Amino acid sequence: MKTLLMYERVVPLDREQHRKLHIHQGPSRLAFARETNSMLMAAAELPLAALDYPCVFVPAGDTHSLVAIVGLRDKENLLIDADGNWAEEHYVPAFVRRYPFVLAEQPGSEQMTLCIDEAFDGIDQTQGEALFDAQGQDTAYLKQLQQFLLSFHQDMVSTGRFAKRLAELDLLVERSIDCTIQGEKLTLNGFKVVDENKLRALPPDTVQELFGSGALGWVHAHLLSLNNVNKLGNRLGQRLQAARAAAEGGEPHVTH
Description:
By secondary structure, the protein is an alpha+beta fold. 32% of the residues lie in helices and 22% in strands.
């Protein structure tokens, strides 16, 4: 399983070069995230994301990242429709909401640089939210955006510590998903989950440590989220059924 980065031409936001830029949703809406079956996410998002998606851990160098699975096949996000809209009443990960912006770390420095993907189709010279005012100062929109990005970055740092502690306690084990949807056999692997038996075997002082840091609540949300695989299976089944009906020239029939 692989998390596809959605950025194409990332450049630092420049007060002079980008002074007249405005940002709006863009004609393709969230289509930029259509070809990724998992989304990086922060542990702080688990209480909401765990209601809709399986949330698992994937190896990332010498640590692990937390991701929400949004598709059962490679390069397919089951939550985005043909018009580029995210499924209604489903949590939209901050990883998606921050696009086309991102904070980049400067090597050897704690300072962050605000960057923008110039390939985003929602960049305009007149329509949408202005980034800078007539005097070249940050607009309220840009200030709010910077705070959101900084909070997300800090949450991701906390997520890294969370995943590292789980790995230190030897709680993460490899898992795979095997299923058959509309006759199509699928296998999703390359991720890890918390082993419930190992979790229950932890000494009381370690459990108290996890509880006190808030990590235990995140762990339980992660475990509950694994039941959402069936929801993804249903969405894929409906998509395959609709595609088959379209190929045969008929109307799709969706069961609820």
